[in-house]
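INFO batch 0412 | record 1 of 1 | parsing
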Amino acid sequence: MFPITEHVLRTDRHTSFYLACGAAEAPLLIFVHGWPELSTSWRHQLPVFAALGYRCIAPDMRGYGRSSLYPRHADYALEHSVRDMLDLLDSLARPKAIWVGHDWGSPVVWSLASHHPDRCHGIATLCVPYIPEGFAPANTIGLADRGIYEEATFPAAQWDYQLFYEENFDAARTAFEVNVGDTVKALFRKGSKAGKGQPARTATIRRDGGWFGGTGKAPAVPRDADVLTEADLAAYVASLERNGFFGPDSWYMNHERNIDYAAKAQNGGRITLPVLFLHGAYDYVCETVDSRLAEPMRAFCSDLTEVVVESGHWMAQENPVAVNAALSRFLATKLAGAG
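INFO prediction complete | emitting tokens
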């Protein structure tokens, strides 16, 4: 019913490319992607929610696609992306939006709710729960399931890969860039029940000497058709080949900055807005179903709705029907009056 159109916002500080779909005057939904994705990661959501009566916006985040790239790790701290999103909201001449985030887009959305609640009707996040002290290994390792990640063997649990970025950034980046097509196919795979109760592959990155078993490159595996079409794959590969992984990987290089930023949240970090959180049943890095990882979110969100989605990490692409159903139900029951 509504076409997806392309737009560019240029300010003195940043350029944001974004997709839009839906009636211009309709209530505003802004979808925020994570690593290493694009605005098109929300391709299954934009037309659906436009048809339900929303104006849907999905930007390429900084370091991705056709938005600005930056040369320093510090340029990818959360506070800058939050500012990007507020500038985008201002350009749309709206005081508030409903924000939806996935992966690193989730901490952006959590930060909008905790630092700028006046710019939010409510929020929804996929996979990454709220960590009031800041989404960083210092605050997530202590919530690990030590029944799976015995401390002597897995001291950083599934968050080991985040420490590898800090210790060997160039090696991590290079492994992804050797063959971007293989990297995308290796990363974007559906979840599996078989991994339940087993250590995530991200738990041994430092011990292995790098990603992909320390081989220095992604394995050549078939495209997972349950997550990506050939056209989807081509879009990701073209963008990541053009821009490289410096920007996307730099999001992991700001843990201390993000902790400092989290300390500046309003109301001591407590969120009273309506919040929807979608757990990935087979997401074994952001494992929130059985571990303690969701506990801080439950303690700091006073109006929280939780739904478990039968999917792995890439749930908006792997199981869009369940994601869209949960989000539409949340919008109808919690945010029906949002304009």
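INFO post-check: The mean pLDDT is 98.
INFO record closed
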